């Protein structure tokens, strides 16, 4: 058997370099936020509290997320790694914290695909039943996009992002077009900036605060471009730009569309909206009946884009953790032809389907659309509890990293990260306090238990395999450290 050269072994561990430009990275972050899904389904969870002032809530959220993103952008500019948060926290705080961060990030990203399987399944089950009289179980509907997600991931990141770009473009066109039509009609009671003022909140400042807690869910995933750092051209420049551009673009879209929604409904109706409402279906019926099916298509394509992009992110995080010995070496394998982590893709795809089916079966049934919607609600809350501590840890890591480097900037590496920490801790506490019924009251304990498990794993590695923990987060898109680790590793490719 021909002995594998050092160059060949290094290449066998690498994802496809320079596969994407700035545009692809922007699509990764923007699409995972799901502009259509977040616009069509999320504001009504804020409106029982902030009512007609919900557009102002989204303005405040945009500012808060930009502050939070600043620390992540600073780290992405210095540490271009597909491990993203896992790498940042490892370099800024330490390997044990990095390992815990990797575990929390896994919860956040890995639960998004099964959550979307449940949402797309239940949404289309209801739509097909109401519009054409076809009765299909939500789980069967959800398996179709899940299978396509796995196929695209096996084909490579370019195929996934090309599909996401098309879907993202369609959903943005539909939701913005409908919003413009509402504005051109003058809405229900005329155009007004009142929804952008605190006085529009029916419950005052407390209503704004609570509405903010729910609206912030629309921005989860803004950092997804960081997981493409090893596949984007000039990652130290393009990844931070992608994060900033995607937050600004999608955030502005949210503000405009939610403002148009309130204008279209009228302040009184907006104050009566609740989480079970489907206001955009009603808006389409009132202002553009011909667009109702387009709304359904845009919502569905947005769910699928979120599914594809979140899957892309978690696959790459798991790949890096496997490559560094934090997970079984099977996760480090890269298909030599397609340059994709084949076994990681299959494992994550199977996980998504199984979790969606299990949660749905035990929370509403496999034939009742409630089962699918509960999958989205339960897993969505869980992944939020997972990602918020990651944002906190990353901003702590930003402060420590730049202090240790001797390149600390008071505003970029001090003031902004501290503000981000305070905002995200407050949001996390608010999320927990607002959920007072089971099973939501159980979920913080599930996350706490998961943190305990991964912390125990980090401690075990530090005692029994300190060399593995020592290299955590060290694999970069550039630099000799990556080559040294790659060439010293053993047993990366599974036996044939």
UniProtKB/TrEMBL annotation:
A Pfam family of this chain: AA_permease_2
InterPro entries: AA/rel_permease1 (IPR002293), APC_superfamily (IPR050367)
Transmembrane intervals: 20-41, 53-72, 93-112, 132-152, 164-184, 204-222, 243-267, 287-308, 345-366, 378-403, 410-430, 442-461
Protein keywords: Cell membrane, Membrane, Transmembrane, Transmembrane helix
Membrane topology per record: Multi-pass membrane protein
Key word Membrane present: yes
Domain of life: Bacteria
Protein name as catalogued: APC family permease
């Amino acid at each position: 058997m021909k002995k594998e050269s050092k160059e060949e072994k290094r290449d066998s561990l690498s994802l496809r370099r320079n596969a994407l430009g700035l545009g692809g990275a922007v699509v990764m972050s923007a699409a995972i936020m799901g502009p259509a899904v977040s616009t069509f389904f999320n504001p009504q969870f804020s409106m029982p509290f902030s009512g007609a002032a919900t557009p102002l809530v989204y303005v405040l959220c945009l500012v808060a997320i930009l502050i939070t993103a600043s620390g992540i952008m600073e780290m992405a500019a210095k540490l271009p790694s597909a491990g993203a948060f896992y790498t940042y926290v490892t370099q800024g705080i330490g390997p044990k914290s990095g390992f815990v961060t990797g575990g929390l990030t896994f919860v956040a990203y890995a639960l998004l695909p099964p959550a979307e399987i449940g949402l797309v399944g239940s949404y289309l089950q209801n739509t097909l039943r109401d519009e054409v009289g076809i009765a299909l179980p939500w789980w069967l509907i959800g398996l179709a996009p899940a299978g396509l997600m796995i196929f695209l991931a096996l084909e490579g990141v370019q195929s996934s992002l090309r599909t996401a770009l098309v879907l993202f473009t369609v959903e943005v066109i539909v939701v913005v077009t409908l919003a413009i039509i509402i504005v051109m009609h003058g809405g229900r009671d005329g155009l007004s900036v009142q929804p952008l003022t605190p006085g529009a909140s029916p419950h005052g400042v407390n209503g704004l605060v609570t509405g903010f807690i729910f609206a912030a869910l629309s921005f989860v995933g803004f950092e997804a471009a960081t997981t493409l750092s090893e596949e984007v051209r000039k990652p130290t420049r393009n990844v931070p730009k992608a994060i900033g551009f995607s937050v600004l673009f999608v955030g502005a879209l949210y503000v405009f569309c939610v403002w148009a929604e309130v204008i279209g409904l009228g302040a009184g109706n907006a104050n009566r909206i609740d989480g079970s409402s489907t206001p955009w279906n009603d808006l389409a019926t009132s202002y553009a009946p011909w667009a109702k099916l387009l709304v359904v298509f845009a919502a569905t394509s947005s769910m699928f884009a979120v599914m594809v992009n979140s899957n892309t992110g978690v696959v790459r995080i798991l790949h890096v953790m496997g490559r560094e010995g934090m997970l079984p070496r099977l996760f480090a394998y890269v298909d030599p032809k397609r340059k994709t982590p084949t076994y990681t893709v299959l494992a994550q795809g199977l996980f998504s389907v199984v979790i969606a089916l299990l949660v749905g079966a035990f929370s509403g049934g496999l034939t009742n659309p409630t089962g699918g919607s509960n999958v989205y609600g339960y897993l969505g809350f869980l992944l939020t509890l997972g990602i918020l501590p990651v944002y906190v840890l990353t901003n702590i890591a930003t402060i420590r990293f730049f202090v240790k480097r001797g390149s600390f900037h008071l505003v970029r590496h001090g003031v902004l990260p501290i503000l981000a920490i305070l905002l995200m801790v407050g949001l996390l506490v608010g999320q927990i306090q607002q959920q007072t019924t089971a099973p939501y009251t159980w979920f913080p304990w599930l996350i706490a238990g998961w943190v305990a498990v991964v912390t125990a794993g980090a401690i075990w590695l530090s005692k029994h395999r300190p060399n593995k923990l020592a290299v955590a987060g060290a694999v970069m898109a550039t630099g000799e450290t990556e080559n040294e680790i790659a060439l010293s590793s053993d047993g990366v490719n599974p036996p044939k």
